[in-house]
Amino acid sequence: MNFRPTKRHRIYEGKAKVLFEGPEPGTLVQYFKDDATAFNNKKKGTIVGKGVLNNRISEYLMMKLTEIGVPTHFMRRLNMREQLIRKVEIIPLEVVIRNIAAGSLAKRLGIEEGTQLPRSIVEFYYKKDELNDPMVTDEHITAFGWASPYEIEEIMQLSLRINDYLSGLFLGIGLRLVDFKLEFGRLWNHEEMRIVLADEISPDNCRLWDVQTNEKMDKDRFRQDLGKVEEAYQEVARRLGILAENPTSTDTQVQYFQSEKTDK
User: Domain for residue 170, yes or no?
Assistant: First the structure.
């Protein structure tokens, strides 16, 4: 069941999350849904417990990135499905960092899936569902005013830094970070602005393959009808140490989160 908070001012609803007005100026409440979509909303479904798992996984990874000095919109987790975040001006770009050939890159360039790329590649896509999020270049981004050259450089540097850190973190738990999507926003403090990481980091927007077996542990299981989607998300959380061993039911997974007593 996809529980949703009520009697709040809803700011925005996307495919996987809802944003509500926060309790303080400059804040929002980000609510994680169980809804699953693929191929720009052409395929729809539900992954039971996904919102709970992604909330915890994203919290964990955002906090880890904050520890190494990456600025993010994350403030704290409020409960099983909600986070308190800073309100930012979202830059209308999806930033995809690729380490191994998979998905659209493999099809576009005729590269066998699983091929190690010569170096990490950063791609930009214009956030526009009705246009199927087309790939764009620096020229498009600056010409249409989506971001300045300085902002593009900042986004590139942050993306590669995040990639370096997360690649090592996931490798340490037996997962290969194949590619992943990031979003960034402008955080304003009076006249001062800085670029911060926004949205989420979870199996929804990361391709994660088991190091030993190459088993897919992410939303590709939903995209490609591979089955055991909930189990894959749970396994990622378990390896990160935020889900206890061998949960017996996705419907009662609340009891398995090890640090739930620390909820604000």
Answer: yes
Q: 112: buried, middle or exposed (CB in 10 Å: 19+, 13-18, 0-12)?
A: exposed
DSSP assignment letter at 242: S
End-to-end alpha carbon distance in the chain: 23
The answer for residues whose C-beta is within 8 angstroms of residue 257's C-beta and 6 or more apart is 56, 80, 242, 243, 244
Q: 117-169: per-residue pLDDT in tens? A: 999 999 999 999 999 999 999 999 999 999 999 999 999 999 999 999 999 99
In one-letter notation, the amino acid at residue 191 is E
Cα–Cα dist 123/20, whole Å? 30
Which CATH number fits the domain that encloses residue 143? 3.30.470.20
Give the predicted TM-score (pTM) of the model.
0.90
Judged by DSSP in three states, 217 sits in: coil
Are 71 and 169 in the same domain? no
Residue 153 has a CB neighbour count (10 Å cut-off) of 13
Structural domain that includes position 31? 10-88+229-262
Q: Give yes or no: residues 201 and 96 share one domain.
A: yes
Chain position carrying tokens 């090592």: 168
For residue 133, give both structure tokens: 């999020």
Tell me: do 22 and 107 sit in the same domain.
Answer: no
Only one residue has tokens 């089955």, namely 227
Q: For residue range 205-231, list pLDDT tens digits in order.
A: 999 999 999 999 999 999 999 999 999
Q: CB-based burial of residue 90 (10 Å sphere; 0-12 exposed, 13-18 middle, 19+ buried)? A: middle
Three-state SS at 49: coil
Cα angle 174-64-207, degrees, rounded to a multiple of 5: 45
| C-alpha angle 217-221-222 in degrees, rounded to nearest 5 | 135
Q: What angle do CA 94, 61, 101 make, to 5 degrees?
A: 50
